[in-house]
């Protein structure tokens, strides 16, 4: 049976669910030559198997998807959903138009991977993850959940808040991509990612203010003046370190510089009033 | 630590899969890894605190493009295990600083091994492509499983190595404690407070711009005033900041939709 005569294969919800499950393995064979290309092909396989019953055609389709592809792993869901729909549409068309559709699929991948990578990096790595991390760190350093049974609340809260956003975007991206095909590019702006980034960054900045006050709160019970002095000194040091980090000194290098500085401080006879160190053993 | 060596290394190996190979659910972040390893070694509190400090300091080390950040799972797991081993009879802050100092080079080593593995994956890619052209699709799927097993094995071996090195470095801390009238330990104790400042700087470097710096200043002044004027329990202050932040986010998202 030639492709012109063949009816388009019916892709069921279970095929899509199978592909969606495989999205979690998108980065398994991440490599420095073609980055996510292996993962993309692996995700698409269940549907490609359905719409290309002939091994030759399926082999060609999979080879097409082995081309260079690199983007943000969560945001890739939008592209993957759209590709699945476009592959399905391609098979329903006469053979004369299939080459054009293949080019469209390739163009969609190349055209979308850059912008969604930038959006994903900005949204997840530089905003949502620091925000969730900052909530958890502030709660830990403020000793909000001190009792033994309450320790797990903080990491669980971190995982819950982060993964609601993460899984939500992956799920919505994949099925919206499948529904809207190549039109998904146009609708990405409507989700308000940029506005959410701005809001969450401001929220993180507010949390940072709380954290800075908490770190110095332990002396408040002893003396108010000491608290204000310590806080001012701490803020000045934070400013100094921020300047160094702006100069592209890595956190690891800064770590050793800080320890070295503290050791010098300990050996400085006039500054160093030997602290009475509390002991942490049980 | 050594009596739980195998279990800790195995758990770290499974957690390392989350870094890239499977899911990215953030189980491998310090704030989660820390308490898990701490719990295995009987000190969840140490794991949680060290995890929080590591999370804060390396908050701006992002996996953007082909850049591979420091292996924070390895850093957290190793430093928590070492801190749990050392803490009996010692100052907690000093021990945590020392443990992080030992674990950073080991985490960097783990990152280098990961880079080598990713270079090696190119061979798997070419092999798989040849198999596809021969219509051997099952092999393509099996390579994925094989790489998962490879990642797990790598995670286990690197964790086991890091834990062993960390264990043998614990004697050095005791030696440092005895040297120079204990001043080295005092230095580690001071460093812990400075490391918190470094963590706050990392957040500023990542998130704060010239336009938004005023919000940070206002937040510090407001929280300081609240703490002085009416000493609320800490959790209420966090909740208040979260609420205001949530309102900010809603405001901006709403503004975007109407624009």
Features:
heterodimer, A: 282 residues, mainly alpha, B: mainly alpha, 2 domains, 79% helix, globular
Describe the secondary-structure layout.
The complex is a heterodimer of chains A (282) and B (259).
Chain A: H1 13-22, H2 37-51, H3 55-65, H4 76-92, H5 95-141, H6 153-180, H7 184-187, H8 193-215, H9 224-246, H10 251-267
Chain B: H1 5-17, H2 30-40, H3 44-57, H4 72-86, H5 92-133, H6 137-178, H7 183-207, H8 213-229, H9 234-258
Helix pairs in contact in B: 1-4, 1-6, 2-3, 2-4, 3-4, 3-7, 4-5, 4-6, 5-6, 5-7
What separation lies between the terminal Cα atoms of chain B?
A: 58 Å
The unreliable regions of chain A are 1-5
Let me know the largest β-sheet of chain B.
none
Quaternary assembly: heterodimer
Helical region count of chain B?
Answer: 9
Pick out the low-confidence regions of chain B: none
Number of helices of chain A: 10
Q: Count structural domains of chain A.
A: 2
Rounded to the nearest angstrom, the radius of gyration of chain A is 26 Å
Strand content of chain A: under 5%
Could you give a short description of this structure?
The complex is a heterodimer of chains A (282) and B (259). Chain A has 282 residues and is mainly alpha-helical. Helix content of chain A is 69%, strand content 0%.
Question: Can you offer a commentary on this structure?
Answer:
The complex is a heterodimer of chains A (about 280) and B (about 260). Chain A is mainly alpha-helical and about 280 residues long. Chain A is about 70% helix and about 0% strand. Chain A has 10 helices and no strands. Chain A has helices at about 15-20, 35-50, 55-65, 75-90, 95-140, 155-180, 185, 195-215, 225-245, 250-265. The longest helix of chain A is centred in the middle third of the chain and has 47 residues, at about 95-140. Chain A is elongated and about 85 Å long. With about 260 residues, chain B is an all-alpha fold. Chain B folds into 2 domains: about 1-205, no CATH class; about 210-260, no CATH class. Helices cover about 80% and strands about 0% of the residues of chain B. Chain B has 9 helices and no strands. At the A-B interface, helix 2, helix 3, helix 5, helix 6 and helix 8 of A face helix 2, helix 3, helix 5, helix 6 and helix 7 of B.
């Amino acid at each position: 049976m030639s492709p012109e005569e063949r009816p388009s294969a019916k892709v069921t919800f279970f095929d899509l669910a199978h592909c969606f499950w495989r999205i979690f393995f998108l980065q398994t064979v991440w490599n420095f030559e073609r980055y996510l290309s292996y993962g993309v092909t692996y995700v698409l396989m269940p549907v490609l198997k359905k719409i290309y019953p002939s091994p030759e055609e399926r082999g060609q389709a999979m080879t097409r998807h082995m081309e260079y592809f690199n983007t943000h792993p969560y945001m890739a869901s939008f592209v993957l959903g759209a590709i699945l729909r476009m592959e399905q549409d391609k098979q329903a068309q006469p053979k004369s138009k299939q080459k054009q559709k293949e080019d469209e699929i390739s163009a969609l991948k190349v055209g979308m991977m850059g912008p969604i990578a930038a959006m994903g990096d900005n949204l997840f790595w530089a905003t949502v993850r620091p925000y969730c991390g900052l909530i958890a760190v502030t709660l830990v350093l403020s000793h909000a959940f001190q009792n033994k049974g309450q320790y797990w609340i903080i990491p669980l809260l971190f995982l819950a808040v982060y993964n609601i956003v993460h899984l939500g975007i992956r799920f919505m991206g994949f099925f919206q991509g499948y529904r809207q095909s190549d039109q998904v590019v146009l609708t990405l702006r409507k989700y308000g990612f940029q506005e959410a980034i701005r809001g969450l960054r401001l929220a993180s900045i507010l949390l940072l203010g709380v954290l800075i006050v908490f770190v110095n709160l332990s002396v408040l019970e002893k003396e108010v003046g000491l608290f204000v002095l310590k806080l001012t000194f701490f803020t000045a040091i934070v400013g100094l370190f921020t300047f160094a980090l702006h100069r592209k000194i890595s956190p690891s290098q800064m770590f050793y510089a800080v320890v070295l500085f503290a050791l010098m401080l300990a050996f400085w006879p006039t500054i160093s009033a030997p602290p009475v160190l509390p002991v942490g053993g049980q | 630590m050594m009596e739980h060596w195998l279990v800790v290394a195995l758990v770290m190996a499974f957690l390392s899969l989350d870094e890239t190979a499977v899911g990215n659910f953030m189980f491998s972040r310090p704030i989660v890894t820390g308490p898990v390893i701490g719990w295995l070694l009987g000190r969840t509190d140490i794991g949680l605190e060290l995890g929080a400090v590591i999370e804060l300091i390396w908050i701006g080390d992002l996996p953007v493009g082909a850049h591979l950040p420091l292996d924070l799972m390895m850093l957290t797991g190793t430093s928590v295990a070492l801190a749990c081993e050392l803490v009996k009879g010692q100052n907690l802050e000093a021990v945590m600083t020392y443990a992080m100092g030992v674990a950073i080079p080991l985490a960097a080593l783990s990152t280098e091994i990961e880079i080598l593995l990713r270079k090696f994956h190119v061979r798997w890619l070419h092999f798989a492509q040849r198999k596809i052209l021969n219509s051997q699709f099952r092999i393509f799927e099996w390579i994925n499983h094989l790489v998962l097993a490879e990642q797990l094995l790598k995670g286990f071996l690197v964790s086991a190595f890091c834990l062993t090195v960390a264990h043998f470095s614990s004697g050095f801390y005791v030696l440092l404690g005895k040297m120079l009238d204990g001043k080295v330990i005092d230095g580690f104790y001071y460093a812990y407070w400075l490391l918190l400042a470094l963590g706050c700087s990392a957040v500023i470097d990542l998130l704060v711009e010239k336009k938004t710096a005023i919000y940070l200043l206002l937040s510090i002044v407001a929280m300081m005033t609240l703490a002085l004027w009416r000493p609320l329990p800490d959790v209420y202050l966090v909740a208040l900041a979260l609420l205001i932040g949530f309102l900010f986010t809603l405001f901006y998202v709403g503004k975007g939709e109407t624009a």
